[in-house]
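Possible regression after last week's pipeline update?

I re-ran a chain I had predicted before the update to compare outputs. Posting the input and the new output here so someone can diff against the archived version. Not blocking, just want to make sure nothing changed silently.
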Amino acid sequence: MAALLELDRVTKAYGALTVAHNLSLTVSEGEALAVIGPNGAGKSTMFNLITGDVAPDAGRVRFAGADITGKPPHARSRMGIGRSYQIPQPFAEMTVFENLLVGAIYGGGRGERESYEHCAQVLELTGLIERANVAARSLTLLQRKRLELARALAMRPRLLLLDEIGGGLTEHECLALVETIRAIHAQGTTIVWIEHIVHALLSVASRLIVLNFGEVVAQGEPRAVMALPRVQEIYIGIPAT
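New output (post-update):
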């Protein structure tokens, strides 16, 4: 499969704190990639470097063969990079449907009329069609998580970045969300998913990478990687023997 996203020796530091150190990563078109690591490992920083919310101190970011290192976030979203945030950030007074239209028009660069049908399809896919005309502020946590996902999908992303979208959900709610993410991936969207709920990741991802102190310390088939002593020590706290 062709490479869709490439991070080439990307480095980012805040004073003496290095949050990404010579970070290199390739994500293939159509892949579902899982990312884990302890708090402070640099996971969200990696997403910020991909979306352009943070500029690297060194290294390059490429998307669909183009060097996007210097491009601003809005340009990257219109190229096909969509993202959900760990804490949902809807336009609270807008309806659910209006939230999607904002994503489609301003994030995706689409016309208003052509966005109506697509946004309705996204609402169907994410289980929000019955809440389309409800103000976003009235949604439950699961519904806000689904709205965060739906807004990203409204931009028609080739690459979807999911940042702990399962956090705070019950087991049942998480399983339902996993089914939605699996359906999105089956439609051809490339996914990179950061999550602490490992069993959710393992049910979707074909590859897993482990970050620690801004570096990739392990990668490969998810269950094989999780069984590595070093990964268990870093992520679970089990001392390596």
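Follow-up from reviewer: compared with the archived run. Residues 166 and 174 are 6 Å apart (CA to CA). Marking as no regression found.
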